[in-house]
Design brief:
Number of domains: 1
Number of strands: 7
Strand content: 35-45%
Radius of gyration: 20 Å
Shape: elongated
Strand order of the largest sheet: 3-2-1-6-7
Number of helices: 3
CATH topology: Thrombin, subunit H
CATH class: Mainly Beta
CATH architecture: Beta Barrel
Structural class: alpha+beta
Amino acid sequence: MRSLLTRVVALTWITLSLAGSLVAQDVIPTATLQKLKQATVLIRAQTGDVGKSGTGFFLGWIGNTGYLATNAHVIRVPTGSGNEVRIAEAIHVVFDSGTSDEREVRT
């Protein structure tokens, strides 16, 4: 048990030391920030009257198929019976949300 505690303390110290090296003046270059914003998507999931939303990232295209990454809880909706969930019937992906270039893809 003491060995585990020693490891946890050491990892915490390393993490805090590395985090301390970042200061408010450290900024993400404008071009990088723009690419990150463009890759971020709003995801709306809907089944019947139940709707949810969350975010994800556009990873790229393979042929005519676009690939996204998101957390499972964003696209899973309750079935109404206990704690069961299922993939939403309709998933809408919004690119450039909140801008004049906003566009939506519906499944």
